[in-house]
Amino acid sequence: MDELTTYAENTWCPGCGNFGILNAFKKAVGKLEEKGIGREKIMISAGIGCHGKIFDYLKLSGLYSIHGRSMATVQGMKIANPDLKVVVFAGDGDAFGEGIAHMIFAAKRNADITVILHDNGVYGLTTGQFTPTSEKGFKGPSTPKGSIEEPLNPLSLMLEAKATFVARGYPVKLDHLVEIMVQAVEHEGFSFVDVLQPCVSFNDTYKRYNPMVEILDHVPESYDEAMAVAKRQDKLPLGIIYRQEKPPYHRELYGDWNPVTRRLSREERIKKVEGLLSSYT
Amino acid sequence: MKDDVFTFIVGGKAGEGVRKAGSASARLFTTMGRQVFNMDDYGSLIKGGHNFSVVSTAKRKITSHYIKADLVVAPDKRSYDIHREHLSERGIMVYNSDTVGEAEGVGIPLTTEAKKYPNPNLRIGVGAVAALAAAIGLDKESFKELIQTEYARDVENNMAYAMTIYDMVHPKIGSKFQLERGDKERPIVTGNEAIALGAAAGGLDTYYAYPMTPSSSILHYLAAHDKELGVTAVHPENEIAVINMAIGSAFAGAKAMVGSSGGGFALMQEAFSLAGMVEAPLLCYLGSRPGPSTGVPTYTAQGDLKFAINQGHGEFARIVASPGTMEEAFYLTAEMLDLVWRFQTLGIIFTDKHLAESRMTVDIEANKAKWPEPVMHPGGEYKRYLDTDNGVSPLLFPPSKELIRWDSYEHDELGVTTEEPDMIAKMQEKRNRKKKAVADCIMGMHTVNVHGDKGPVILTYGSTTMSVLEALRCGEIEAKVVQPIYLEPLPVWELERYRDGEVIIVELSCEGQFASLLREKVRIEPKSVIKKYDGRPFDPLELASRIKEVM
Fold it and tell me: Does the beta carbon of A277 lie under 8 angstroms from any beta carbon of chain B?
């Protein structure tokens, strides 16, 4: 057991893509620490589902949230103390089914959070139903005749919602995924990493993805180019697809304020309240 | 019937400055050192319709508006027709002769005069305040000062218009009402302002809310004063984000609060239980209105009592308290913030539109507000869910070398998920002990207000307390008013002494939820339950006669 692993028993299926995400993130934490971002400042959160179990396996501080809400949870952490780095592990059903409004708004307001999407196109822990990213025709217990809905494209959707960092990784390309994770956490603003995650029990995509993935040789230079890359159907481009510098939400909200480290003393507060009360006379 | 109250009603269309005229008139009375209660009646629309503001004033404490008015200003025909019914025996109607035509009362060409200035519609309210100033014989210098502070925008035109109307009204009914000065000038605040200020005085760091009447004005107030107070106010995408963000903020050590009304609260249920499980300290504000569903958004009701005390699924401690006045709202908000942090659980300030949005003169000593002092980790190895005697585990905030793990799943002491039967039982018991610790703590606190000591017992709570007290004053009724401030845990130990006597219950609910709660928890069988459920608060005169009927 390494120093980033808890004593929780790992109950993912053997061969699950989640192992790659877990290992990649542990390596990313090591690299972030080398860059001066200590693990005590990295807060994690997760929704509910197979992906969420990563919270139990990672020996880091954070809040194991509920289905679809972890993006809101970490935004609250960040607003309360902007010195923290906050990372969410989300499932595709979690982020784009139950929590889609939070995803779109987190991107829209450029909340300084990192969302790592365990994108397996299936609800694993509830035994294989179709999700918002499942291919049309996906057969699961709730769609025995095949899903009749079009899948969402998480990359183009997040771009459209004004995300300032959008990337895609694949656990099979582990070192590449590590590097993306490091840069996503370092990015100031909303960063989104879509990780293609095969589910060996309900949606085994290794064989399909292996020949389709292709590491980008450069970061697209414009929004339009990024959108074109995000929408490619013939290949699954991997890497940073879009990156933009823009002030994050908390800085636009309150400048260099920090609600917990710069909190007013009781005496200062009472004086302010007395002042406001007397303005009502 | 005592005749120590003067009441002014100004009506008009939404968007014509009716509420402003009400609050400016209220200010007029407070500058005279008098006490004031001001209630706004408005519909769910922005322009048009019919709104009115009622301002009642006395030299003594006054805790309700009166619907019978001594002076009415009616800028349009609809106001004239509606409020003619509201004139007291000595009441005078000042109406807009341009819109009403020939009628009983004092006709003043409010519109003709207003048209001499830009935005004539916005002037009408100024004219109403001028009519009031003339009718009570306020000297011109004092009136000018009032216009300067209350209508500072475009003050020159406002002043000119106000003086014209004053001069037109004065010869007809000038100094018709002689109002004596009161003992001292007091601040006048809405319940929501009192709650926002109480939260700030009590150490609030972050406030999250999605707009919903009648809670929105807390969000507006804190957003407007964020830098000054050092409180961060955020308006996210929906109520679900609101409460989840607040829980995240609490994790990071911020005193967080959320606010909404019934529908928004319904959306927060899931995360309410999350807070119960992760043991997040969280203060919630529930300002109710007539339901179910959208109901009647801008009116008042106490129909969410049982909803408030049963928030969230699962077993954990909840604290629900309802303030009986604006002053109590201030102190109680700080007290509740302290309680939720002391016990790391959820508290709800439960109130309604009547308290939330009505204005009242207050005596508030900000320095008496509580300030949370949670149990902090003393150092060494940290376990978030350390199993302690009273169930309260010490807090530690990031960044820290220690692991700080809050978990929505059942968990062990460190915050790692568990399905082990022994651990599940142990944690259920820990949370249950905390629930008992909350009840024990509240048992030692002031939880029930008792007003008066003779006559029958009247049990009431929340904003209705103010209506009952004013009804007793105006009806000269002797009664003992018993008002539980805390509703969950309900202070049964204080209330059971009223079990065997004659009890009258007063509340704004059709089912009689408060009566049913008292029956269930205290086994009080009331002699009668006085209820109102038309969206309007009680009028003290009407309530006094209903109390007399059942006494």
Answer: yes
